[in-house]
């Protein structure tokens, strides 16, 4: 392993020696600390993606003998927020004994059920599908991550050759295989065939690295990612332009946001043909470089490569053919242009399902797109709630970074459609979806509340949010709005100053709601004013103010 360094250009070094020292020799706490700081950098792994583990020696509660236990992120967790309640404790020897009963690729689903026979900690989270990938390796601390730079290497044409070019003999490589027990066996064999390596690149998937301590594992992961990032950056500079260069020039940002606010309710309506959806918009430099490029037409239909990406984004986006300067004020005319594109996407998705389905495949899910690209304007995503749609957007940005890196190295390659389908409609994935909590009564709905900076308006917003709605807080007082908005968790609310007696101010509030969530389903007019004076002391001005807010505000 190379000499450890603390200066990185392409990833964040977040290890705090004092913080780590506070955990003493508690290896589980150190593993959780490492997991959290790795998950804090989206260039290292995306939300919910990757897995981390450590090993300790514990006393078997039945024999009182020392046993090796692996602590690993449980199913459905996120390493950035991982804590004790989200991990599984597994007897390492019992997990390895599963090799004796493994019946091959057709036996993968049964093997997941057998993980339960290996549980040491009865309070464990359900073990994830990645458990054997860690358990069949011998290291004390292991990271399985999905860095954009590493997936770019993994998804590049001639990935194995590229791996050798970057890291020489210090890294192993295994071809694409769906996560499961067989992939664990392949990783184990790769290490046996290449003793002394510091990690393994998984084709079209991600990275495995390890260390004797949590810190060594952390540094090893960062160094491997840094080397890949440096290699890609060099290739991009050598190539000059990525994605074939610019084909379309972006509109100015203000115009992009105006267009996005206009079209999002239309897109939301079309995406909600089966289930109501919540929207998200992105127009970062990374997004605009890709969606305005010559190669968008070639790359977008190829789909994403990493399973974590397309499970969130669907296999490919819908690319709109609307001109960036399209007049969006005539909604009927715009819908006539959009509807055929959506119908074609749904039919293509149905064809994909019917071509690839197995005898025991779950029923086809919602055929509408999750990611929608409008060249010159930006990228939209639509899903069941704001967090899911935001994360889907982030995952497609990860996919863009992967395509960018792979195209710079050699050429981007995606998973075959059958492989993608077998993961998207894997029975284990379906079971995970079926275990999701029941949605709240107002889930998937957006409520705009006036006078929500405090008092009755804020109380109404609280109730709507508690029932699952996204809330748009409006008030004449910005300071009270900032305070009120801070009481909600991320992805629940937004706010905007609004004078209910001014039509332009009201229109801007609706635009904010559309840009943030995709539209408005519920309006609660709670703005009010009380002037406590005797009738003889009430002036014409007082009366006009009351009429404007309480009457005119309701009208407009």
- Overall mean pLDDT: 93
Q: What's the CATH architecture of the largest domain? A: 3-Layer(aba) Sandwich
Strand content: 5-15%
Determine the N-to-C terminus distance: 68 Å
- CATH H-tier superfamily of the largest domain: Class II aldolase/adducin N-terminal domain
Helix content: 40-55%
- By CATH, the topology of the largest domain is L-fuculose-1-phosphate Aldolase
Number of strands: 15
Uncertain runs: none
The shape, in one word, is globular
Number of domains: 3
Structural class: alpha/beta
**What integer value in Å does the Rg equal?**
26 Å
Number of helices: 21
How are the strands of the largest sheet arranged?
3-2-1-4-7-6-5
Q: How would you characterize the largest beta sheet?
A: 7 strands, mixed
CATH class of the largest domain: Alpha Beta
